[in-house]
Specification:
Oligomer: single chain
Distance between the termini: 27 Å
Shape: elongated
Largest sheet: none
Strand content: under 5%
Number of strands: 0
Helix content: over 70%
Order of helices and strands: HHHHHHHHHHHHHHH
């Protein structure tokens, strides 16, 4: 009866907090990411609460700088667009007319050379008629098109404002909960884990599992985050030297895209190269592509990330790719956090189980994060290896029978 009541209470608790599940996950994620910074500040200040506030202030400062940079770029571009609207309209109209005329002229030449003699006059008249009709449409001033465009833009903006107004209360509540929960996790997180361990049986086993989990999460989260920040910093400096407009803004955006597998920094420097291609600055096109390929792809993926990953657990690249990429297509952007968390949890359980099997088989176990054993100490006896093989077969049979 007690167990049933407790299960119902837990289910009800999960139900009433379902709108904050994402907020809670984000709080745990931010607390884990900020904990190294908090630990360093705590050693300097000797005060937990001040260290937690300073750690959170770093996040708010980074977000505030990003928002100010975006707003500054938008205001500058809008001012330039307003000042040169007539020139832009004239340039765009000339470009469109020239492109259309060139297309129809080439099409007519092609049909005259390749179409059957009987059909050639008919096709030529059709092309001339289409060219005249489209030319009349292209000559319509932009001011006459605005009455058609503005109502649609107004509708889109109104719907966006309505959505923000509708969801603003819950978004503000979620933001407040996330801030407070992250703060308390930083201050009391370590003590809470120790208290949790005191309540658990098999404390040594749970500690081993948590040590594996921390090492794996360090490789999946901290390494990726630090690598993306370094990539964004390199991008900002490189774009500044190459003369790219708003280099610091593009550096911040590069840091964000560097977190996304299979997309990465290429989603930023390829459009930048296309921009220089459009304005016919071919030297900068080649420079941006070389810089992006070498400094934003090859070096971060093959030098920076492996160097940072030495402090954590070794994880196969295929598992890392699945952990970050697959959940994106199922639950959206939150998959970047939820996916590695789930994969890391299962991988930690698997490695803990292997650790237990090796201990039971009498095989020397490498301490977590310690030096590798010598070849002689890795194989104590043939009997130990036989016991390990029997344990492995038993474990695989246990999994295939569906007892996991």
């Amino acid at each position: 009866m007690v167990a049933a009541i407790l299960a119902v209470a837990i289910a009800a608790m999960v139900y009433v907090t379902k709108d904050f599940i994402t907020t809670i996950l984000l709080s745990f994620f931010f607390a884990y990411i900020l904990y190294p910074v908090y630990s360093h500040l705590s050693r300097l200040t000797k005060r937990k609460h001040i260290s937690a506030l300073l750690s959170l202030s770093i996040v708010f400062l980074a977000f505030f700088v990003f928002v100010l940079t975006v707003l500054s770029a938008l205001s500058t571009e809008l001012a330039n667009l307003t000042a040169t609207q007539d020139a832009l309209n004239e340039t765009a109209a000339d470009f469109i007319n020239q492109t259309a005329d060139s297309f129809f002229d080439r099409t007519k030449v092609f049909t005259d050379d390749n179409a059957p003699p009987i059909l050639a006059p008919f096709i030529g008249d059709t092309i001339d008629d289409a060219k005249g009709r489209i030319g009349m449409i292209l000559k319509v001033p932009v001011s006459k098109l605005l009455p058609e465009i503005l109502p649609r833009l107004t509708t889109i903006v109104t719907e966006l404002v309505d959505w923000i107004a509708k969801h603003l209360p819950i978004m503000m509540a979620q933001l407040g909960v996330a801030i407070l929960l992250t703060y308390y996790l930083l201050v009391d997180g370590a003590e809470s884990v120790e208290e949790f361990l005191r309540l658990m049986p098999e404390r040594a086993l749970i500690r081993r599992f948590l040590a594996e989990l921390n090492s794996i999460y360090n490789s999946l989260f901290n390494v990726y985050l630090i690598n993306s920040l370094l990539t964004g910093l390199i991008a900002a400096v490189g774009f500044r030297l190459l003369g790219v407009p708003y280099p610091y803004l593009w550096g911040m955006i590069t840091a964000v895209f560097a977190l996304i597998p299979m997309i990465g920094a290429g989603a930023v420097y390829f459009p930048v190269a296309l921009y220089f291609l459009f304005i016919e600055d071919y030297t900068k096109v080649v420079a941006v592509l070389l810089f992006g390929t070498i400094f934003l792809n090859i070096i971060p993926e093959n030098i920076t990330r492996p160097t940072l990953a030495k402090a954590g657990a070794a994880i196969h690249p295929a598992i890392t790719l699945l952990a970050f990429a697959a959940p994106l297509f199922v639950i959206g952007f939150m998959g970047v956090i939820v996916g590695p968390a789930l994969y890391g949890f299962v991988l930690a359980a698997y490695r803990t189980r292997l650790h237990i099997m090796e201990e039971e088989a009498g095989v020397m176990v490498t301490p977590l994060g310690g030096p590798k054993p010598s070849p002689k100490s890795s194989f104590l006896s043939t009997e130990g290896l036989r016991r390990l093989g029997r344990k492995a077969r038993s474990f695989i049979s246990w999994l295939t029978r569906g007892r996991l």
